[in-house]
Amino acid sequence: MPRRSLLSGPVQYLKGVGPRRAERLAQMNIQTGRDLLYHLPHRYEDATTVDTISSLGPGDDATVIGTVVSKGVIPTRRRLRVFRVVLRDDTGQIECSWPGQPWLDRTIARGDRLLVSGPVRFFHGRQIQPREHTVLSREGETEDAGDPRAASADGQVFPVYPATEGLTHRQVRGIVDENLDALITDLAERDSLPESWRDELTLPDLAGALETLHRPPSLDAIEPARRRLAFEELFYLQLLHARARARLRRDVEGIAFVAADELTRGLLDALPFELTGAQSRVWNEIRDEMQTPVPMNRLLQGDVGSGKTVVAALAMLKAVESGHQAVLMAPTELLAEQHMRTLTDLLEPLGPKPVLLTGSVTGKARQYALQRIESGEAAIVVGTHALIQDTVEFHSLGIAIVDEQHRFGVEQRRRLREMGGCADALVMSATPIPRSLALVLYGDLDLSVIDEMPPGRKPVVTGVRGPDSREAAFDFLRSQLEEGRQAYVVYPIIEESEVLEVRAATSMHEQLSKRFADFEVGLLHGRLKSAEKDEVMRRFLAGDVSVLVATTVIEVGIDVPNATVMFIEDAERFGLAQLHQLRGRVGRGADQSYCVAFQSGNAPSERLSAFASTNDGFRLAEEDLRIRGQGDLFGKDQSGIATLRFADLERDRRLLDEARNRARRIVADDPELSGSEHAEIRRELEERYAGREALYQIG
Ligand code: ADP
Ligand code: MG
């Protein structure tokens, strides 16, 4: 009988683990030997350049290792409590102090061997104020006895592991250290990446990379090893995406739309403007793909106002001129109605008469619409997402377009495909996300990007204001109203309480109704019935309401060209993407528009400064990624498939492209990975995504 491998076996049977610790490791998702091998340090302490305590002088930046000989919390006159220890090594002793961190008294004990780094200053003697500290070992902690490295960290890069309740980072390190050699031997020189690739990309082999990350010989050795794991992670995710894409193409016979170009030409000729370069490029991408029998599954990204609607209209006409129907779905009724107006204006002169189908279309009108859709007389249908999903039968649907889809999961994408049958699918998003993130989250879709604005747009002037400049801002608002313009005043969603949020908006509405008694001030929030909401919105659209006080219900897609002022209250509560969406509600007409973000303090935050500094949604998206970090962004991916542990979307952009190209190439040659040269890759893919690949069984 073959010995059960340490890698796939339960972690419990590894050295130094046992049932109790296995339970704690499980809390960190470590179930098997393999999980433990991939449980990597989250930071490293550089002990290769340890200073002797006697050599330190004020002004030095020190790294020392010593034993805690005494400790205590000392109150100061300013009621600040300071945690202090005295640290001793073979050469002498020094005080370390942590102002305002009395709780460290519970985590650091006398007798601990401590590594600290930080500046040395003179304060009743020499003193270090540690930037970082790590407990290397603890007196009487027998668990570490088997780990000789803990005793003398000096001369090493010291790995610090993610720990959990009841299991310290030192204990985790002890467990890893004791089992590392055996686990690596168990890999038996198998590698999830072909050797030729490793050579081409100058990446270390798997065993070497893992060993380096657990026991780095120097700080410099860490990055190449991380890149190796990052590439591996990106490659397998891209392979999953590429396979989903290939399966759809294999299983679904799409429609090859004819290259008649009568209606689309007609629309292009009738437009009062030329397409921008980006619109033309994107339209060509879509058109070319529509003319092949491959089922389209595409994401169209473009900033607010970049002109996605025209591109959608062209794609719809393309389907119609080939004898099929087209549907455009919006997230709200209001938006659907707006699209209905735009498309009717654009398309009616060319023949097709769009049909609207929303929850408000009822009775006879609804029957009539449904019947025309089923018979195929209605070539172009506009509606809301939900409706189209369950009740409507199309005669011959050619393309399904979804507008303003900010974030959508694998599951939603699957439903869209099922609904469309063999129809092409185009999803439009006005929330730009960095390309790297799009490839990771939506790598199974093809990507078209409109990265250019129509000419002649006046960028919205954006300011950030603190409490001191509120009055002046509202005076300015009045001057705009007096010129006949309209304005939005928006309140953020208050997560804890919709009541609070409604109250904030309501009291502002009262206040502004008094202040601007000579104008009509409207109120819009989530507690209103949808008929009431629509009523307020319609009056704002018609210009009867001058100021609209609203919670974020107005966020998506509404187009009121005469609105030139966007005030955003408590702007710190919004993400950059949301702020940018809100700003996109103004700047839609000929007049100069303004956006003011109000914050509680007078000094602008990093995020709000970034917001004010550019009107470019893609740049803001990159900035958002930088400020928030990718972890925050992945939190929204419910499938959990696209969670990256090693790759960094900013640093590893080139690796990502490399991974994607290689994944697509392999799938093009051997979609089922059945060739013997792909056996290892196939095995690894199955191991990584066991059970989850089903989510991608689309089409
Ligand atoms: P979004 O991408 O936000 O959906 P829209 O499609 O609503 O943007 O377009 C915003 C406005 O820009 C519309 O009024 C549209 O008519 C106009 N527009 C679109 N393309 C161009 C262009 N190439 N030149 C000038 N104006 C354009
Ligand atoms: Mg739009």
Task: Note down, in words, how this protein is organized.
By secondary structure, the protein is of the alpha/beta class. It has 24 helices and 21 strands. Strands 11-12-10-13-14-9-15 form a 7-stranded parallel sheet, sandwiched between helices. A hairpin with a 2-residue loop joins strand 3 (81-89) and strand 4 (92-99). The longest helix is centred in the middle third of the chain and has 30 residues, at 222-251. The chain starts with 17 loop residues before the first helix and ends in an 11-residue tail after the last helix. Bound molecules: adenosine-5'-diphosphate and magnesium ion (MG). The site of adenosine-5'-diphosphate has 15 residues, from helix 10.
Brief rundown of the structure:
The chain is of the alpha/beta class. It is built from 24 helices and 21 strands. The two termini are 42 Å apart.
Write the layout of secondary structure elements.
Layout (H helix, E strand, L loop, with lengths): L17 H10 L5 H5 L5 E4 L14 E15 L5 E9 L2 E8 L13 E10 L3 E3 L3 E6 L10 H4 L5 E4 L8 H18 L8 H7 L4 H9 L7 H30 L10 H9 L6 H15 L5 E6 L5 H14 L3 E6 L2 H15 L7 E3 L5 H13 L4 E5 H7 L5 E6 L7 H11 L3 E6 L5 H7 L4 E5 L10 E5 L4 H13 L3 E6 L6 H18 L5 E4 L5 H12 L5 E5 L11 E6 L7 H8 L10 E5 L7 H8 L3 H12 L1 H5 L18 H17 L9 H10 L11
Parallel strand pairs: 4-6, 9-14, 9-15, 10-12, 10-13, 11-12, 13-14, 16-21, 17-19, 17-20, 18-19, 20-21
Antiparallel strand pairs: 1-8, 2-3, 2-5, 3-4, 5-6, 5-7
Helix pairs in contact: 4-6, 6-7, 7-23, 8-10, 9-10, 20-21
The protein binds adenosine-5'-diphosphate and magnesium ion.
The site of adenosine-5'-diphosphate (ADP) has 15 residues, from helix 10.
